[in-house]
Amino acid sequence: MAQARGINDAENITYLPGSAEALPFDDGSFDIVFFTLSFHHVPEAGMSKAIDEAARVVRRDGHIIFFEPAFQGSFFESEIAFDACDGDERKRKAAAYACMLGHRRLREIAELHDETIFSFESATDFIESMSPKKGAEEEWETFLRLRHFTLDAQRRINIFKSMPLK
Fold first, then answer.
1. Kindly report the CA angle at 39 between 28 and 100, in degrees rounded to 5?
2. How far apart are CA 117 and CA 154, in angstroms?
3. Cβ–Cβ < 8 Å for 38, 63
4. pTM value?
5. What is the structure's pLDDT at 30?
6. CA–CA dist 162, 104 (Å, integer)
7. For 101-121, how does the pLDDT look when each residue is reduced to its tens digit (9 = 90+)?
8. Dihedral angle sign, alpha carbons of residues 58, 114, 73, 120
9. Which CA distances in Å does 118 have to 65, 101, 121?
């Protein structure tokens, strides 16, 4: 939260610690709940409860949006090949995707695709930014040179309408 405040400390922003499974807000407090590259980090056993909580705090017929990493792109390849960044998250990403698509409180409106581009000045910049745990600097540099020191991270944006409990 200190890092977030350092980036944006506007008066109309409040940073609160919490858990997706137990949001500290009243029912119907928001028009939109937005998970930003975070839903796949919710423990698998708590994913459904996190969606229930999002549906609870969003206004009737509000929207719940998931901005999540996809399974394609050279950024994803570096996570797999070098255990870089958060490492191999395929199981968690798949569980998160399945949970949101099959959840009784969500009706899908759209699935959009986007990408984030990461540019590195050198293999050292890659190492400092991505913290690879496998491979040697020569392997990382070859990987990066082949991609002109630029990695693409494919993203998926799933937009849902929150559905009332039946």
1. 75
2. 9
3. no
4. 0.88
5. 95
6. 9
7. 999 999 999 999 999 999 999
8. negative
9. 23, 29, 10
- Give the integer Cα–Cα distance in Å for 87 and 78: 8
Q: Which of 119, 145, 123 is nearest to 132 (CA)?
A: 123
Report how far residue 71's alpha carbon sits from residue 162's, in angstroms, rounded to the nearest whole number.
26
pLDDT in tens, 95-106: 999 999 999 999
Q: Which residue ranges make up each domain of the chain?
A: 28-162
How far is 134 from 106, CA to CA, in rounded Å?
A: 39
**Edge-first strand listing for the sheet containing 150-162:** 30-36, 58-69, 150-162, 106-119
Residue 51 clears pLDDT 80, i.e. is over it: yes
